[in-house]
Amino acid sequence: MREPAKGPFGRATAVAEGVAAAVRRRQRDREPRVLLYRRAGDPRVLAPGAKGHDEILDLAERMIELVDEEQGGPRPRGPAAGRTARPRRRDGEGV
Questions:
Q1: Residue ranges per structural domain of the chain
Q2: What's this model's pTM, rounded to 2 decimal places?
Q3: Measured by CB atoms within 10 angstroms of the end CB, which terminus of the chain is less buried, N or C?
């Protein structure tokens, strides 16, 4: 294990390395992934440069577009996409 550098320059370097690692993690988490499932149900991530990755990703995006067209508009995406607010009733029932 490497000894951390001492002094203000060493601390600044450590902070910069931490920020760079966080940026790389966020970018990696935002990239679309292709998961392949075996018969047993075990998922496997298909590497971005692997054979067929781009074709599968294009096909999945087209499938999503078709569903969006059928349902009348784009679906929200992101962490809050699955959350829906319950409608309020005017008569006060179900509150």
A1: 1-31, 34-74
A2: 0.45
A3: N
